[in-house]
Amino acid sequence: MLKKLKEKIDSLYVIQNYRKIFPYIKPYWWRALLSVLITIPIGSMDAVIAWSLKPYMDVVMVEKNTNATNYIPILIIIFSCLQSLLNYAATYLNTWVGRKIANDVKMDLFDRLMANEATFFDTTTSGQVMISYNTDVDIACNGLLSNLKLFTTRVFSSVSLIFVLFYNSWQLALIAVVVLFGALYPLTTVRRRIKSVMDKTIFSGAAVMSHYNETYNGNRIIASYNLYKYQSARFRETLRSVFKLGIKMIQRTGMMSPLMHFIVSLGIAAVIWTGSYLIVHQQISAGNFVSFITALIMLYNPIKSIGNNYNNVQMALMAMERVFRNLGRVPLIRSNPEAQELTTVGDCIEYRDVCFGYKPGHPVLKHVNLKIAVGQTVAFVGNSGGGKTTLVNLLPRFYDVNSGQVTIDGTDIRRFSLDSLRDKIAVVFQDNFLFDGTIRDNILLGKENATKQELDAAVRDACLEEFVGGLDLGLDTRIGERGVLLSGGQKQRIAIARAFLKNAPIVILDEATSALDNKSEAVVQKAIDNLMKDRTVFIVAHRLSTVRNADRIVVVNYGEIVESGTHQELLEKENGVYASLYKSQLR
Q1: H helices then E strands: how many in the chain?
Q2: Contacts within 8 Å (CB) and 24+ apart, 239-247
Q3: How far is CA 288 from CA 170, 171, 297, 472, in A?
Q4: Helices 29-44 + 71-115 axis angle, to 10
């Protein structure tokens, strides 16, 4: 009972997904329709060959008269050529439509991917993203359309061949049709058999892709720590899991085609036995029988291998379900429908009784209260993992508070549109991501339509002039994927130049110099000092020497603010946490 209910629910999902894909088909509907209509004559022409054998056998083989059937070979050649041309046209149209639809779906999925909140990327591997947002689309669109062509061709072929069967002998045709439905019955269990295995296979496939991605990005760690055997062992274990799932898939579906083959053989045997009786009793002619057997074999042969194609169709349908599940996913962090635009930051930024945790029951911030006036520079210091970075990540809404409020000029930031909020904030991370392209491309991400004067000013204020001037191509020098051709200090200054171009009133510096050597830090610190002028600045730092001049230093330990004040005020506190940290770093 439960299985039948589940199958009905699955069927309902399939219908719903077909409805959802119609908007993607609509721009190309006439090509899609034409590709389906072409399959009608492709399939129907199979019946011509089978039908033509009756007059050939009766006239030539029995009556020994060739004059009346000279047209049959020519007719077969003409129909075969026409069938081949139509088959090419249908394949071309299916491929064109399939790839167009796939591209449109991928664009929508890509937009959904970018809109996902930080928590999604924290918990989803790169392999899962590649499978869910790329590979599944190809399986769903291209696989479904190519198999649709195959199935529609065979449907019309089967209908026309069944007509030939009844034309030659209704008695034999009834036997053939009953056997046909018996052979197709095992297909009704395919979806239930492969669904659970397919879901696990997708997960394992994503793990394989994640291994490749990790090896590419972590190649220096692998080399420096001699992790070749370790990585190979992990990869081998994943491949072993994929192999087991592949074998399990064969175990569940591999008997489908042999079983159908056996049932079809029984049908052919029954037809030959009955046909012999009908010929002997002169109820059908030899031409009828030969035409019938030819039509029957042409009908049954595709059926014997249809199991594998049907498996592919079911996989495509399940991939489509996953695609539309991702398309329908609503980001946890998004603009409210009545969101207002944040135009200026005129008074203050305030954290009001803020509590936050990445996982339920594991608080990272506990009842934080903090008020920062516009134009102030505030530095957050404290123990590692104490919540400093989390605190500043709440401001651009990378995450939303569990309780409490973060406000700008007294308004909860959740009431502002995400775009307008983030337009007012520039972030310089410890490890800034640079895109493949030129230095100019990466700086202009801060403001795509920046003038030459604005770009030159950003380069100058970020202390990049000397570095860029020493390059043959200057700002048009390519930096490689993720900026692999640059040093850490050069990457940071490009990120700072990008922030200069953005010209946001709020700047977040998250460990912006902690990964640099002393010489690079001095240059980057000068660029940061330029960036901080006339802005509200949030600094997260481990090196306390870099925050001495902050208007206010906030000490965050274990999710709570334990001290707050200027550098001098905190040093003068007896047994103060900041004073203890500062003295230990000096030592």
Answers
A1: 23, 10
A2: 239/208, 241/204, 241/207, 242/201, 242/204, 242/205, 242/208, 245/197, 245/200, 245/201, 245/204, 246/201
A3: 11, 12, 14, 84
A4: 150
Tell me how far CA of residue 88 lies from CA of 82, 85, 301, 555, in angstroms: 10, 5, 22, 71
450 phi and psi angles, rounded to 5 deg: -65, 145
Whole-number pLDDT of residue 62: 54
Spatial separation of the C-alpha atoms in residues 159 and 155, rounded to whole Å: 6
Looking from the CA of 273 toward its CB, the CA atoms found within 13 Å total 8
The model carries a pTM of 0.76
Element containing residue 15 per DSSP (H, E): helix 2-25
Distance CA 455, CA 446 (A): 10
Which has the closest alpha carbon to 165: 298, 62, 273, 64?
298
Enter the tokens of residue 142. 């291209």
> Tens digit of pLDDT for each residue in 335-344?
988 899 999 9
Nearest in space to 557 (alpha carbons), one of 427, 314, 425, 365: 365
> Quick one: which H or E segment has residue 555?
strand 552-557
pLDDT above 70: percentage of residues in the chain: 81
* pLDDT at residue 43, as a whole number: 64
Asked if residues 496 and 442 have their Cβ atoms less than 8 Å apart, the reply is: no
Among 111-120, 484-493, 542-551, the range with the most confident prediction by mean pLDDT is: 111-120
Query: According to the model, what pLDDT value does residue 49 have?
Result: 66
Spatial CB neighbours of 457, under 8 Å, sequence gap ≥ 6: 500
For 131-285, where are the alpha helices, taking DSSP H only? 136-138, 144-168, 170-184, 190-217, 219-224, 228-253, 256-280
Largest distance between two CA atoms of the chain: 121
The two three-digit tokens of residue 16, written as one number: 């719903």
More confident residue, 63 or 574: 574
Give the tokens for residue 295.
Answer: 């039509």
Amino acid identity for residue 441 in this structure: D
Least confident of 78-87, 360-369, 380-389: 78-87
What is d(CA 269, CA 341) in angstroms, rounded to the nearest whole number?
77
Contact present, 271 and 169 (Cβ < 8 Å): no
- Mean model confidence pLDDT for the chain: 80
pLDDT at 2: 44
